[in-house]
Amino acid sequence: MDLRIEQLSAGYGKVQVLWDVSLQVSAGEFVAVIGANGAGKTTLLRTVSGLLRPSGGRVRLDGQDVTRATPTRMVQLGLGHVPEGRELFAQMTVRENLQLGTAVRAEAKQRQAAGLEQVYALFPRLEERGSQLAGTLSGGEQQMLAVGRALMGRPEVLLVDEPSLGLSPKVTQTVFGALKAVNAEGVAVLLVEQNVAQSLTLADRAYVLENGAVVQEGTGAALLADPGVRSAYLAL
Ligand SMILES: Nc1ncnc2c1ncn2[C@@H]1O[C@H](COP(=O)(O)OP(=O)(O)O)[C@@H](O)[C@H]1O
Ligand SMILES: [Mg+2]
């Protein structure tokens, strides 16, 4: 499934945050959007997944205009979203959180057992902790659970909001490795991150977001080698 974002504008009240953002994630692609704190990464993902209404522009899935679709509808169409801050149900178990990931999508609910098996294969830690309350997990385990819950909806396109935030380098590797594995199975990934070096290493292509606008795009490797990107984001 192909995601196209066309000249998207959005904000909060009178404050415009996104300015004519255009980007594309082709079926099976791994795309990163890198940007500093406050650049508009979370606003972008929330607008794409229907949580925020855009003030202009379009979002398309396989050509279909889904700009004003509800978040529930977007999940039903095959869009997964791992939100900033994870938004887990702290008083529910790991397994219950995962099961909830299938709630609004009939084909995911029917294949819930297979979905659990897949998520547990990806994150064996979650299987060990299946009966534990989500709120008592470590930060890394919570991030794995947030990714796992989104995968339970059987997305074809997965939006992931700063999964590395607050995690150790080792746990970050685990989570990024899982995203790469999911992508290798055919799920398109749109990752937004401040962790520029690792995101550009993972991504086929990437966009640089500054003050709510795309200012640069290229392959992950090209941006990683770009002097402007290096001095602005890698302090090299
Ligand atoms: N709920 C909100 N109400 C008002 N302004 C917001 C809200 N959320 C984010 N913003 C503002 O929008 C801008 C972009 O924020 P955000 O999308 O969270 O950036 P990022 O995820 O790249 O750190 C910031 O200036 C932020 O203060
Ligand atoms: Mg953010």
Automatic annotation (TrEMBL):
It comes from the Bacteria. Pfam families: ABC_tran. Keywords: Amino-acid transport, ATP-binding, Nucleotide-binding, Plasmid, Transport. InterPro entries: AAA+_ATPase, ABC_transporter-like_ATP-bd, ABC_transporter-like_CS, BCAA_Transport_ATP-bd_LivF, P-loop_NTPase. One of its GO terms (molecular function) is ATP hydrolysis activity. The keyword ATP-binding applies. Signal peptide: none annotated. Residues 3-236 form the ABC transporter domain. One of its GO terms (biological process) is L-amino acid transport. Belongs to the ABC transporter superfamily. This is ABC transporter ATP-binding protein.
